[in-house]
Amino acid sequence: MVQINFALREVNCKIVYYGCGLSGKTTNLEVVHGKAPRNHVGELTSIATEGDRTLFFDFLPLNLGHVAGMNTKFQIYTVPGQVYYNSTRKLVLQGADGIVFVADSRKGKMDENIESLQNLEENLRAYGMDIHTIPLVMQYNKRDLPDIYTIEELEEKLNRFSAPHFEAVAVTGEGVFPTLKKLSSMVLESLNRQQGSTVVRAPRKQAMPAKQPAMVGAAGPQRPVAATRGKSPAAPQRDSSEAAGRTKAGAARSRNAVVKDRVVRSPEVKPIERRSPPQKGVTVRRPVVSKPAASSDCPQAQPRKSKAGLITVLLLLLLAGAGAAAYFFLLK
What we know:
Number of strands: 10
Oligomer: single chain
Number of helices: 7
CATH superfamily of the domain at 3-193: P-loop containing nucleotide triphosphate hydrolases
CATH architecture of the domain at 3-193: 3-Layer(aba) Sandwich
Strand content: 15-25%
Structural class: alpha/beta
Radius of gyration: 56 Å
C-alpha cells in the first residue's frame, strides 16, 4: 500500500522478494544494499528465524521517475522461504505494491518453486489482491550452476502469468539491479494509472483574496486637478472630512432634541415629557400647560380670614351693647 509523505514529497512503495527457501532472496537484498549509494539506502534490518531471515531496508532510486511530482522511495522486504513460516510470509506480504518471485534454477527444486508460487497466490487472495494484476517479475537465479533447468522449462512451469523474467546470479550481482529496476518501473506505471482516477494532492491552505487593482482610465475615479501649484492635492480629503464633521454635528443636535415618551397606563395618565439638557446655541421651546377652568357648578369656598373678622365684629358689638345697658342701669 502506497504511503505518501507530503512534508518530504515522497511516495513510499513496498516491494517484496518472494520464493522458496535458499533461492537467493536475501542475497538479492544484500547486493542492492551493498552496491547502492550510501545516501540513497537506509539501514539494513534483519529479523532472524530458526531456518531463514527476513530483511528489509529503504531504497531511494533517482532515475525511475516521479509520481504526482514526488520522489519515489521503495521499502524492500524478503520473506522466510520455508512453508511453515507462512504466518510471517503472509504478514510481510501485506500492503505490497510489487513482487519479485525468485525461483531456484537447480534441478530438483521445481516442486518447491511451484509450492511457493501457489502460496504467494493464496496469500495475495487473502488480502484481496490478484497475482494477475499486481506488478510481478520472475527472476531465475543461480544460472551459473551446471545442473539447472532451461529457461523454457521454468517459463512453462512457473510463468503462466506472462510476467517479465530475468536470469540472475545473485552472488555476483548479475541480473539483480535489472530485476529491481524493471519491477520499480512497473510499480510506478501502476501508481500513475491509479493517479489518473484518484489524484493525490497535499492539503492546501486557503489563499487570501487578492486586492483589487486600482482602475486606470475613464472607468476609474478621477482626481480633481489643482488649478495652481499652491493648491495641495489633498483638498478633496479636507472637503470630505468637513462634510463628515457637519454630519456628526447634525446627528448630535438630533440626539439632544426633546424626546417625548407617551406611557398610557390608564385614561387619567397625562403625557410625560423627558427632556435632555439644552446645549449652547440650541433653543428648546417648553410646552405651555394650561390649567383647567373651574366649573360654575362648584361653590366658591370662603376664605378663613373673612370669617374670623366677622366673628370679631359681632363680639365687639355685643360687648358694646352690654356696656351701654349697664351704664343706663346705674344712672337710674
